[in-house]
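All the exercises in this workshop are built on plain-text protein records. There is nothing in a record beyond a sequence line and a structure line. A learned vocabulary of local backbone shapes supplies the integers on the structure line. The question running through the whole workshop is how a given chain folds. Here is such a record, shown just as it appears in the course material:

***
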Amino acid sequence: MAATATASSAGPRYAPPDPTLPKPWKGLVDGKTGYLYFWNPVTNVTQYERPTSIDSVQKFSAVPISSSVQVQQSSEGRRGYSPDKENDRYGRGSNAVSKLEPVSRSNQNARGGPVHSLNTPNGTASSLIGGSSTRGHGSAAAGSNMSSDAYRRQHEITVTGDAVPAPFTSFEATGLPSEILREVHNAGFSAPTPIQAQSWPIALQSRDIVAIAKTGSGKTLGYLIPGFVHLKRCRNEPQMGPTVLVLSPTRELATQIQDEALKFGKSSRISCTCLYGGAPKGPQLREIERGVDIVVATPGRLNDILEMRKISLHQVSYLVLDEADRMLDMGFEPQIRKIVKEVPTRRQTLMYTATWPREVRKIAADLLVNPVQVNIGNIDELVANKSITQYVEVLSPMEKHRRLEQILRSQEPGSKIIIFCSTKKMCDQLARNLSRQFGAAAIHGDKSQADRDYVLSQFRTGRSPVLVATDVAARGLDIKDIRVVINYDFPTGVEDYVHRIGRTGRAGYANGFRTGFGDEEEGMIPADEDGIIPPNDH
């Protein structure tokens, strides 16, 4: 049932006058929660973010985003405010106020949490980050003249859940803090990807999400940016443990998530550390001791550190499972469940997956509360990225290497290319054969972390433009300018095929292609009932 904005009996009141606020902004205190927020009586816009100037606020907040948002309550039901100038970006200072606690899951309504409106003193509900809970599916998408239904049809978005907010079709429509928007614009992004456009307004309402999207869809920022906003709301002390926890299947993906968190959270001074196996624990433990806002971890290493009692997850209120299907494929379900037991039940949980098999549905049902499901592309099917041109060639084993060299020579000099092999032995052998002429290097599970980091660095910078890899790299790499993916050996299943070819056609880089060599012997190309693999070219 859609929530409507109503004036609370404990209405807002004016905060003490603050001469540093730009005119005409005024400080308000929510009478029910005790939150301080800011109101512009000219535009009737409200926001948590302290305004710096009229121009900047109008630029990023002129589009009304929400008439009703979820507000996290402290255990006392209200929260004090300290204007201490010594506070850091989260308002933490020597006179620390009581911590903001996430909504109790036992008290959540059908939308995943209690809903309160932010009211202005005249009783009018105003706007704030979070998306509208009262918009119908056919209403206008935020920041666009296109209706929500039309935008979703255009981008093959399907949503399931109560009162799903309209997608954000522009960055300005999000009402995100100006420092985050600056980082996004500086990165060269012109508009949110479909998964970001639809998942952001849901996540900003503190609701649980299951997002099913192809690889290369921009999902990392889909959960990181709402996580940054969550951090600003919570104002936890990082020395007491992280507030945001991201679980990922591989160390490659984990380090790339950390890179994105540091890049886009830089101006907000957000700290992030990465915990993964194959590297010494000492430096990772020292970073935890110093205190971090975000921990990105593989399940195995995080479990090891939990058993050492060197990390506390009692402050985690924003939990992300990235590539959940891959983590289950790798046998991490026991570790995931053990980790989640250490996380408070009062939390927001977001699950991102490329596939939706029974095992993933089961763990989602166990860990999430009333989630909104967002599908990008075909529902309940494994989907190859449509921006990738695919070719299949059936060759004898003797012809494969000759044809591979022909394809490599046909590419522009310096083009980044990934070649997938089914075995580590073949991976090393092929890299040796190609290294002199094409600058190839190998990566697989038997390589040390130092070797893997070095090879990936050489590949990213173009010093080794050809990367020969086993499937260990298929679900972790996020290098946006990969031109070609070659399956020297076909994977054993269609799922791994989709994730292999997803290394090209990444978000913002749509013109990749993929070719695959199938052996003439019957059965070397995996069964493909859904038509993901194209007919072979003879």
The radius of gyration is 24 Å. The longest strand covers residues 389-395.
